[in-house]
Amino acid sequence: MKLHNLKDEQQIVDYATAVRTGLGNNQGLFFPEKIPSLPNIDALLAMPTAERNFHILKPFVQENIADDVLRDIIAKTFAFESPLHQVNDNTFCLELFHGPTLAFKDFGARFMANCLQHFADNNKITILTATSGDTGAAVAHAFHGLKNIDVVILFPEGKISELQQKMFTTLSDNIKTVAVKGDFDACQKLVKQSFDDTELVNQVGLNSANSINVSRLFAQVCYYFDAMAQLSVTQRERAVIAVPSGNFGNLCAGIIAKTMGLPIKRFIASTNLNDTVPRYLKDGVWAPNATVETLSNAMDVSKPNNWPRIEYLIESGQFDRTQLSGLAVDETQTAETLKSLHKQSYISEPHAAVAYQGLQDSLSTDEVGIFLGTAHPAKFKATVEDILRIDLPLPEAIAACAEKPDLSHSIEADFAILRRFLTD
Ligand SMILES: *Cc1c(COP(=O)(O)O)cnc(C)c1O
């Protein structure tokens, strides 16, 4: 399948090129012109997960990846479960945090790393990515130790939890981490400036691994099918999925799944106070405010970089805009929702709580709600303990890296300084 640059209709590339280059001309995003539809969804949902994932991913990558290689990549990527946990009569949490860094970004990062490794051909590659939280850890772990691939991760200094930070700043070898004096949007701007610098791109083999890279989206499509496979047949047609959204990659993957034929009834885009999209869905005006810090800090994004892909699916008539609504949840409500989940014997965290609130807000009695659990509660230990007044034990993966020294560098939000760092 060919991928089109959404900002330059002349640029049409294959999957391998899209994965290797990340962003297209004019900083355009790569995306399929037409999402393939899958025959016989019921049969697909009855298959073992690995086999199902093979059929979902094959149409996107078959031009560049042989079947046996794809099966191998799938085995390496999807090496953990995404269970559907029932919270009450008509609500489930799809737990996407059972991977090595306890967050859903493990899926996209590992699929991308494995594809890139396959496409690398012994050329040196530098992965440059900005993270507002979990991308960093997922990318660092997915690429750690891979040959010929260096990873540089930018993050906003002092804006993410210490534990979250330690999950990617304590690895050595091919993983380098940079604390930028600025917010996440400043980090994203540095990444974009780097990709605009053709000389730099060629010199270090620059590649992005954040949610801009289309490979990540394709991997995430798979767990929407997995969620529906865990519902009963009668529940499936009534399923509403609430997605806690920041850069809107996760929601985009869900919409791709629906476009492929998965019978999701509708979606809710739940955000924190960084509510550009919910406001846009209401009044049609795209008016990002300054980014504000919230309890759900991995969603502190006011200019979501995946939105143009969703917009494209709407404008090209592949996705019906009326099947998407938005809700912005404020800080008090997020805390209250977390407590309400706790009363139902479910310990969650602020991002998933924002999504759950989206269901509370609009789920009708004949619908079944699924909210995406994007991170393990222990990744936001201090916040969760503070709000719920409980003691939360650290899972081993986190406990181990909390003990290690932080190896990150610190720089001003200045492209010239970053450029020097990358070419050193
Ligand atoms: C990244 C992240 C999100 C937001 O996902 P997007 O695909 O950027 O919308 C939500 N929750 C957590 C825990 C995250 O790390």
Task: Summarize this entry quickly.
With 424 residues, the chain is an alpha/beta fold.
Sheet with most strands: 6 strands, mixed
Question: Mean pLDDT score, rounded?
Answer: 94
Oligomeric state of shown chains: single chain
Structural class: alpha/beta
The rounded distance between the terminal residues' Cα atoms is 38 Å
* Continuous helix count: 19
Q: What is the CATH fold-level name of the domain at 80-102 and 214-393?
A: Rossmann fold
Strand order in the sheet with the most strands = 4-5-13-10-11-12
Low-pLDDT residue intervals, each spanning 5 or more residues: none
For the CA atoms, what is the radius of gyration?
20 Å
State the name of the first-level CATH class of the domain at 80-102 and 214-393. Answer: Alpha Beta
Overall CATH architecture of the domain at 80-102 and 214-393:
3-Layer(aba) Sandwich
Kindly state the percentage of residues in helix.
40-55%
Structure description:
This protein is an alpha/beta fold and 424 residues long. The protein has a domain at 80-102 and 214-393: Rossmann fold (3-Layer(aba) Sandwich), CATH 3.40.50.1100. It contains 19 helices and 14 strands. It starts with a strand and ends with a helix. Pyridoxal-5'-phosphate binds next to helix 12.
Furnish the topology, listing elements before pairings.
Blueprint: E1 3-5, E2 8-13, H1 15-21, E3 30-32, H2 41-46, H3 49-61, H4 67-77, E4 84-88, E5 91-95, H5 105-119, E6 125-130, H6 134-143, E7 149-156, H7 162-169, E8 175-181, H8 184-196, H9 198-204, E9 206-208, H10 214-229, H11 233-236, E10 239-244, H12 249-260, E11 266-271, H13 276-283, H14 307-315, E12 324-328, H15 331-343, H16 350-362, E13 368-373, H17 381-388, H18 396-402, E14 409-412, H19 415-423
Parallel strand pairs: 5-13, 6-7, 6-9, 7-8, 8-14, 10-11, 10-13, 11-12
Antiparallel strand pairs: 1-2, 1-3, 4-5
Helix pairs in contact: 3-4, 3-10, 4-5, 5-6, 5-10, 6-7, 10-12, 12-14, 15-16
This protein binds pyridoxal-5'-phosphate.
